[in-house]
Predict the structure of Probable membrane transporter protein.
Amino acid sequence: MQIYLPIAEVSVNAFLLLGLGGIVGVLSGMFGVGGGFLMTPLLFFIGIPPAVAVATEANQIVASSFSGVLAHLKRQTVDLRMGGVLLVGGLVGAAVGVEVFTLLREMGQVDLLVKLCYVVFLGLIGGLMFIESLRAIRRSRAPGTTKVIRKQRTWIHALPFKMKFRTSGLYISVIPPLVVGVLVGILAAIMGVGGGFIMVPAMIYILGMPTKVVVGTSLFQIIFVTAFTTLLHATTNYTVDMILAVLLLIGGVIGAQIGARIGVKLKAEQLRILLAIMVLAVCGKLALDLLLTPAEIYSIGTGGHG
């Protein structure tokens, strides 16, 4: 069933979009990531222009993340105070990111920037997560080893403006969560991602939050930052395709509920290594697309007519 997307100006199979939304929704519920880092490149692959994919995907993330947060709130695995601090940083970052996006769009460079950002970030994050997850699995299998306790004192504990985060069992400075929030906000605007693939590792390894609280807290922050990003893109760049968003959204909401159930049954290390493999696979495909000669050589640079 082909459907025409007015803003993207392409025809796509509606069931394909529903299926993609569902798959990404499952990942969202399992890993606590908005799923945009996978969905946005998938939209590139099926012919959606990057500028439209980025802005519209931010919209779909809101719904799948909201669905995931509801499941986590029931289990009381959301640190609302930490989520609030991350959110303040995220909104500032999103506003900056949309400005950069608009500037690059006017210059006709936005498509290349978006794809390059994906290759760099997915490669770095995927690689680091994969190595760390392998180590964690080895440690859990090694006989007679004691459980590794997180380092109690790090440079973060020396920073001022401390605050108690009861759900996470932390007493740390608000500066690192704010900085993480700003970075994630910028990425949400430029890459059309919730930023969970950066926020989840940052919350575990930099802030020292317990893994069980990280997923729900990450999704909580993602909802508001991506909603704000979508609003800015819709009003400044006019690149949000509502038909595309609705189809992805329906699939995403259903998938997120299934994913949250699967996530509970798997160990944290297994979840992380699965996510790392997926991140690296998408990174590889995007890198190949950038390096290989496109099929329509003469279609490049058509946006540059002054």
Remarks:
- DSSP finds ten helices and four strands in the chain.
